[in-house]
Amino acid sequence: MTSYRQVLAVPGMAPLLGVSLLARTAITADVMALTLFVVLGLELSYAAAGGVAAALTAGVALGGPLLGRMIDSRGLRLVLLVTVTAQVVFWLGVPVLPYGLLLVASFVAGLLMVPAQAVSRQAIAAMTTAQQRRAAFALESVQGELSYIVGPAVVILGASTVSPDVVAWGVGAAILAGGVGIALLNPPMHAQDETDAVAAERPPRRQWLDARMIAALTMAFGTTTLLSGVDLAIVATLREAGQVSWAAVVVVVFGVSSVIGGLVYGALTRPLPTWLLLALLGLVTIPAGLAHDWRWLCVAIVGSGLLTAPTLGTVADAVSRLAPPGVRGEVTGLQSSAQSAGFALGSPLVGVAIDLSVPAGGFVAAGLAGLTAAGTGYLLSRRSPARQRRRTMPEPGAGRPTLSKRP
């Protein structure tokens, strides 16, 4: 635990993690809040609710890199001012918007979502040393797991005991508080020794979006595809067993296991490669389909849980190490977009597998998605950095560097 004490002793780190946890918990709950509002408040179908959720998710995926680039060029506080204002307007308006306008507004709100996760990752990279970074990103991934455990549960409880309108306002208020808190802390986005690199001309995208970066983003996408699929497979398995009411217990066990796994992994002295962690996560997910009772499913899902936070934390660490300081905001935004796309794809992918086979097929599909992403990441990351550099060097007689076409 010495490594965690060192990370939390970094000036500003503990307040940043606390405030960003509040914002991320609210942001994690936003899809559930909108779903319950459409179903309970507007009394429309779950398909209609899914449309609103998809619009919000698509906006988040597209907006991540754009907001990250704005942070790189305009600074953190301006981006927070714009996004916090947009969220306040959206969540105040949710209870009075008709469905058509809510659909459009959800997409815009996703585009201008407060980038709490991306900001915390970028700040961690700026505030910690290379030796501290793995433990710091482990804490960040644990923070994410806690937000997934708490956020949707609080929204469901509020919607069932108060009203979906009040819940929508509550989510907006929490996002406001988190965004304002981050703005007041104003964490550094770059380390002190990176000043010259940030002030220099922005490196072209072809220079940093190389095979290794694509590998890291692919594994970020594959990890969340797997996790989104596992959530659906849990519900499908318990529904077939007539025990769907126990799904929340299984999800909590999964989340707690992830928290434990993240804390243990972050304290280790020797890290594992990202592709290996993701491959192990995929392998241990597949056998969970053998469980047909909520008790056995709780046991079967522990292996996946223990590897979830370590995999997410290692992906974030890899991206931060590969990102040049001048474009770190954009790169971190790309990572958030890749993960959002994975969450969006995982459920329909696994849903098709379940429809074509049995609920256990959902765990198989999710595990295979993780294994595929791990294999792709391994092959891409094995490409020689020296070869990559040679490909950016000018040909004899050329006036400027050129890149060969990638296969």
UniProtKB/TrEMBL annotation:
Instruction: Indicate the transmembrane segments per the record.
Output: 46-68, 75-93, 99-116, 137-160, 166-185, 214-238, 244-265, 272-290, 360-381
SUPFAM superfamilies the UniProt entry points to: MFS general substrate transporter
Protein transport keyword on record = no
Q: Which InterPro entries match?
A: MFS (IPR011701), MFS_trans_sf (IPR036259)
Recorded hits in Pfam families, A to Z, give: MFS_1 (PF07690)
Q: Which domain of life is it from?
A: Bacteria
Start and end residues of each stretch annotated as Disordered: 382-407
Keyword terms: Membrane, Transmembrane, Transmembrane helix
- What's the protein called, per UniProt? MFS transporter
